[in-house]
Amino acid sequence: MQFLPALLLALTPLSLALPTTSPIENTLEARQCATTCGSVCYSSSTLSAARSAAANYVKNGGHAGSSTYPHVYNNYEDFNFAIAGPYYEFPILSSGKTYTGGSPGPDRVVINKNGARAGEITHTGASGNNFVGCSGTS
């Protein structure tokens, strides 16, 4: 049994050299901004969940709770979306949760009828009821 302490001592440097991902690194990765609307950073997972929910509602002809979302987005601001419409807008929530009804806040994902990503838009910084593009949407 005298070899056990020596073996543990010999393996300790190897275990310290193994790559690890700390909880801080996981948190930082989750907070990387896929887009920023006003000063709100949205992760790709939050955007993906909003687009997926919107696409399901469009496909099934429903709405989130008693809201009218998703609803047709007419693109009066003339954004240069890389995909064809018709377009639908659906709220993105700064909490990271997926919208299920109630106050929509200022930020939206825009998809087409097939559920493909057109972009993200916000009322923040826009005049009246208009939209401006979030980062990456022009």
Automatic annotation (TrEMBL):
Alphabetic keyword roster = Disulfide bond, Endonuclease, Hydrolase, Lyase, Nuclease, Signal
Q: Which EC class, in a word?
A: lyase
The record's Pfam families line, in alphabetical order, gives: Ribonuclease
Top-level taxon: Eukaryota
Q: Which reaction does it catalyse?
A: [RNA] containing guanosine + H2O = an [RNA fragment]-3'-guanosine-3'-phosphate + a 5'-hydroxy-ribonucleotide-3'-[RNA fragment]
* Residues in the signal sequence: 1-17
Q: Does the keyword Zinc-finger apply?
A: no
For molecular function, the Gene Ontology terms on record are: hydrolase activity; ribonuclease T1 activity; RNA binding
Q: What is its EC number?
A: 4.6.1.24
Q: Which Gene3D superfamilies match?
A: Microbial ribonucleases
Q: In the UniProt record, does the keyword Lipid metabolism occur? A: no
Family according to the record? Belongs to the ribonuclease N1/T1 family.
The entry's protein name is ribonuclease T1
Source organism of this protein record: Aaosphaeria arxii CBS 175.79
